[in-house]
Structures are given as structure tokens and as C-alpha cells.
């Protein structure tokens, strides 16, 4: 598993400070994708268990969630990394363009964002989006958390 970038993000998982790994090798290749550099397999840096553990230790007490942008195509590695994050007290999230996720992966997640990018439908901040931000435990769709309030 390779990641192209590691960022601390504040908006992708509402109410959480997330360590975000953008995983390379995406096969979905949505038209209008904002990150086509992630399509290339093995682009970026190898995400080794040692490096991953160091990152989790570094941000302990600051970040509250670990977010993977993709990576479901590396099912076993992804599950191992999600489970390690949970053991260290982090919440977990996966952003994927797929509509269905393997149940074994879901068991290691607090949230999942599903659905490919379709430009004319917009992302999670759009009322017309095809994408869903789901709390896994309750299976509740939480897209409303991304909508901006209407100003009067």
C-alpha cells in the first residue's frame, strides 16, 4: 500500500481532527477527479507498519480520527491499519468511490463515505449528491452535517 500524501484535515469527518492518508492505485478514475495522480499504482511512499505506527504516535492527543482516502483495494492491509488505529484510541473513516464496501472493512470503521464523484451532482456539501457519509454502527446517513445553513 502506498500513500501520496499525509495531511491533518478538519472538514472530512465532522467534529474530528483526522490524519488523512491519500492512497494511490485508485481504479475508479472518476471523470473530473481532483486527484488523478492517485490513479497510478505505487505512487508516493510505501505505508509500512513502522511508519504508520510512528504517525499514530506522533499525533496522539491531537488527532482523533484516521481517514483513508481510498485503499479498499488493499483490503487486508487496510483492515490491519484501521484496527491498529482503533486499538490506539482513534476513530476511523474511509472515503471511497465505491457504493458497497466489504463487511470485513466496515467492521473496522466508524464512518464511511461512499459514491463516486459525479461533477453535476456535487459532493457531500450538495443536496443533489449521490455520495453518502454513513455512520457505520447505526447505518445513518449523515450528509446533513456537510450542508451549510441557509442564511436569512
Quickly list its features:
alpha/beta; TIM Barrel; 152 residues; 8 strands; eight-stranded mixed beta sheet
Structural class: alpha/beta
Mean pLDDT score, rounded? Answer: 91
User: Total number of β-strand segments?
Assistant: 8
CATH architecture: Alpha-Beta Barrel
How far apart the termini lie comes to 47 Å
Gyration radius (Cα, Å) is 15 Å
CATH superfamily: Aldolase class I
- Stretches where pLDDT is under 50 for at least 5 consecutive residues are none
Structure description:
The chain has a single domain, classed as TIM Barrel (Alpha-Beta Barrel), CATH 3.20.20.70. 30% of the residues are buried. The radius of gyration is 15 Å and the shape is globular. It has an eight-stranded mixed beta sheet, covered by helices on one side. The protein has three helices and eight strands. Strand 4, helix 2 (75-87) and strand 5 form a beta-alpha-beta unit. The chain is an alpha/beta fold and 152 residues long. The longest helix is centred in the middle third of the chain and has 13 residues, at 75-87. It has helices spanning 49-59, 75-87, 103-106; strands spanning 2-9, 18-23, 45-46, 65-69, 91-95, 111-114, 132-135, 140-141.
Strand and helix layout:
Layout: E1 2-9, E2 18-23, E3 45-46, H1 49-59, E4 65-69, H2 75-87, E5 91-95, H3 103-106, E6 111-114, E7 132-135, E8 140-141
Amino acid at each position: 500500500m502506498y500513500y501520496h500524501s499525509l495531511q491533518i484535515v478538519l472538514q472530512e469527518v465532522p467534529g474530528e481532527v483526522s490524519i488523512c492518508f491519500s492512497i494511490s492505485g485508485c481504479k475508479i478514475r472518476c471523470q473530473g477527479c481532483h486527484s488523478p495522480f492517485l490513479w497510478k499504482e505505487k505512487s508516493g511512499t510505501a505505508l509500512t507498519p513502522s511508519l504508520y505506527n510512528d504517525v499514530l504516535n506522533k499525533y496522539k492527543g491531537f488527532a482523533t480520527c484516521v481517514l483513508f482516502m481510498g485503499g479498499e483495494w488493499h483490503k487486508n492491509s487496510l483492515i490491519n491499519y484501521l484496527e491498529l488505529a482503533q486499538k490506539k484510541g482513534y476513530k476511523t473513516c474511509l472515503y471511497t468511490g465505491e457504493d458497497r464496501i466489504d463487511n470485513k472493512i466496515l467492521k473496522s470503521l466508524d464512518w464511511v463515505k461512499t459514491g463516486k464523484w459525479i461533477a453535476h451532482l456535487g459532493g457531500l456539501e450538495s443536496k443533489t449528491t449521490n455520495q453518502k457519509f454513513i455512520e457505520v454502527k447505526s447505518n445513518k446517513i449523515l450528509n446533513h452535517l456537510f450542508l451549510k445553513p441557509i442564511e436569512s
